[in-house]
Amino acid sequence: MGSMNTRTLRVAALLASTVLSGAAAAQNGPASTAHPALWPAAKSQGLVDPATEAFVTALMSRLTVEEKVGQVIQADIAHIKPEDLLVYPLGSILAGGSSPPLGAPDRSPQKPWVDTARAFREAAARRPGGTPIPLMFGIDAVHGDNNVVGAVLFPHNIALGAAHDPALIRRIGAATALETSAAGFDWAFGPTLATPRDDRWGRAYEGYSEDPEIVRAYAGQMILGIQGAVGPYTGGKDGVIQQGHVAASAKHFLGDGGTRDGHDQGDARVSEDELIKIHAQGYPPAINAGTLTIMASFSSWNGQKMHGAKSLLTDVLKGRMGFDGFVVGDWNGHGQVPGCKPTDCPAALNAGLDMFMAPDSWKGLYDNTLAEVKSGVIPMARLDDAVRRILRVKAKLGLFQAARPYEGREGVIGAPEHRALAREAVRKSLVLLKNDGVLPVKSSAHVLVAGSGADDIGKQSGGWTLSWQGTGNTNADFPNAESIWSGLKTAIEAGGGHATLSVDGQFDQTPDVAIVVFGENPYAEGVGDLKTSLEYQPGAKTDLALLKSLKARGVKVVSVFLGGRPLWVNPEINASDAFVAAWLPGSEGGGIADVLIGDKAGKPRADFTGKLSFSWPKRADQFRLNRGDKPYDPLFAYGYGLSYAKPGEVGRLSEVSGVKAVSDNVVSYFVGGKTPAPFAFQIAPTTSVQIAPVDAGGVQEAGRQITFAGDVPASLSIVGDKPLDLSFQTNAEMALSFDYRVDVPASAPVTLAMGAGRLDVTPPAGAPIGRWSSLKIPLKCFQAAGTDVTKVAAPFELATAGTFKLSIAEVRLTTDPAGAVCPARAR
The pTM is what? Predict the structure, then answer.
């Protein structure tokens, strides 16, 4: 038969799509098989050339099947030791969000990270026999080299989207690459090219915009910044890493921003046309720019897990889009493919995944994958294709060359020019939502600076900051950074004014104006998902109370709102004379002062230029609010943003949220002397357990003293209004953490349970009495003891048949693995 033209192919594919979609809808819902002719074409630039392919072909001819299988598996440094590489020829390692460098804390500066990279590389090179292949070391660099103490933290992507500046994005990519390379890594897991469509998604701030136009404009520029222009392999010292660049990883392919209800790792139930037009637009420019890797999404498309979606990974991405690099999985994401588990998943490799991200499952996965290749379950041709792609990327990176001129170089991480670039990005990303003439503030004024975010660099930086969720940080962890308060103070004092920090808003002398910095606490994937409302601080509106308190005392109020998504803040806007969306600005808080604080006379030193790249909700139930929707009824539309040059008026806003205030809390069970909604204490039997308030952490009645009478077996539980599904938290290696103090020793064994999983936590004989301590138990320990983590009615249940008195405080889930232990299963 003769060849059909492109138009005929598209018509045929569209007809096939319509027929298949109709059939699938009748039987199983929307179709999940892609039709490549409908998709945009692209082609990897600079990845394939005769010299590179000849080098890779010669290398592959010497590899054993064991070495080939090793190349497709990546392990996490928290679950592998350098000496393991003397036996297992793995191709890659990663440092997960909270995984520490070898022999050092997870919050470490440059040297421990460089030492860790070198230790793993040297061990891999010493493997006896066979053909040595260099490791590829990856890390999340979501907004700068964010795991390394001292690195510059750029504003998160949601802020950069508001800047509408592709050239700025390329410069940020280049600076991020330099700092990442200097810390010993050669692969950055970024940029995120998601197009978030539901603002409840906890990763919304990783997206540049709700509209693909900005994602499309930024994608290629960030790739070129991170990687530079990828050139031919010459065998010399001219690889990406030798030029101060690292490999990029465009992610997450595909549709992670379109999941139903904004559920992380959920299902994008959208048509193929919407998947293309909304969610795929960043990938052709990223591929054309030469991205070396692409990361598969945890999520599904119409029920098909992306890690197993052959029509998308192979037919569309590698076929129609011409991607010649390799596809890496996400954290044990292959284990979610039906019929798979983390240690065994031939379906993912056969679908087009080239490298498994198997942080803690790598050893079992290696053994099973090797057996499946030998048995033919995984065709040798598919393995060879994956290995060729991986070796091609390693050659382009320059990993086969010994020279690493930027690794360990001083003066790169936290460089002044990088800080200046980050500060510029902060200025350009601020969006002025309201200004009743109070801004700019005269630098000669008396200014009160208040709010929980004013002097908290961790809070202004958000998730993916030194730790996975961005929690547990103090200002001391950021030696090359400036808090918002510090930046404001410097600018005000430079003009002869006076600045006072008072987090709770108290003052002795009435200020001319108050700048209140508040907003969301740090979070990342999964933990940051909202379920029922976009209302900021539903229930106890402590920040609103602070704003109203200042207004009641006659003080003009400027609100600086920190957040990873637009939220319903109508009451807070009403209580403010000016309201600025500062997003998550990162380590350079001084950039906010550059725009808010004018000269002595109040003339602006810099104007607001940021415009919304996400629509701002009018009601708390407007979860999916995107330009082009019908109906489209935002409070502030896509592209909105006031300035000093072009002011505007904002009248009084409705304070009817449209939804009932319901807590989305699934991780905090007892904090500050209270059980946050929807949790409550429960004792059984009520006559054998007593609860009384007790001081904890220097705070009055922040703890509870629990007394077990010992007459019958008894328990104290913290229960919710419905069973919790903690499967995500378990896979993410989160732990149950609580502070406790033994007041009277236990006369019988003490157990801590989560469902059927019951662990022995009896304090040992001689344990100190009257001293506060902490216990941190990984959820996987409860799971191993029998807990069904998908149905946890009581996340904390302490029980004993004897007498026992202890005090507890701060019961919650934590992402910080430091100090976690796994007690023995209770008998």
Answer: 0.89
